[in-house]
Amino acid sequence: MNRFSCFLLTIALIVGSSNAIWEKNSLHFKSSLRPGNTLRIRCLSNDDDLGVHLLSPGQTYDFSFHDSIFKTYFDCTLDQGPNFSFHASFTAYKSGGGIIRYGKTNFWDAREDGMYFTHGQEAPKLEYKWIHV
């Protein structure tokens, strides 16, 4: 009975800690554009098209996901300005090669001069400038 109790305790500890081990990754988009300027977001992965999302200044769009053992990516296209004439396309998240990440967070902030990026611990940095199309 003593070995069985140790076995049950071990299983309980593993299951209890599994939330931290299997935490989803997440992407967060925020519109810091000037009033009246709408941000349009469309993200595609190797498995899904997440559709089009429109954000007013100050609004956010977030989603969470698990990495695939093979490859996980989200390519996103963002447009803003009059008639959505300013454009940025980039890979907002990427992993692969057998490396599975858990709890990774990517923050993207749309500002007037471009897209800023951070993982949350450091100040956001300009990664992509808007392209006028």
From TrEMBL:
What keywords tag this UniProt record?
Secreted, Self-incompatibility, Signal
Domain of life where this protein originates: Eukaryota
Report whether Glycoprotein shows up as a keyword of the record.
no
Q: GO CC annotation: what is one? A: extracellular region
Q: Which InterPro entries match?
A: Self-incomp_S1
User: Where in the cell?
Assistant: Secreted
Q: Do the record's keywords include Signal? A: yes
Gene Ontology BP, a term: rejection of self pollen
Signal sequence, renumbered to the chain: 1-20
Similarity comment: family membership: Belongs to the plant self-incompatibility (S1) protein family.
What name goes with this protein? Answer: S-protein homolog
Instruction: State the organism named in the record.
Output: Brassica carinata
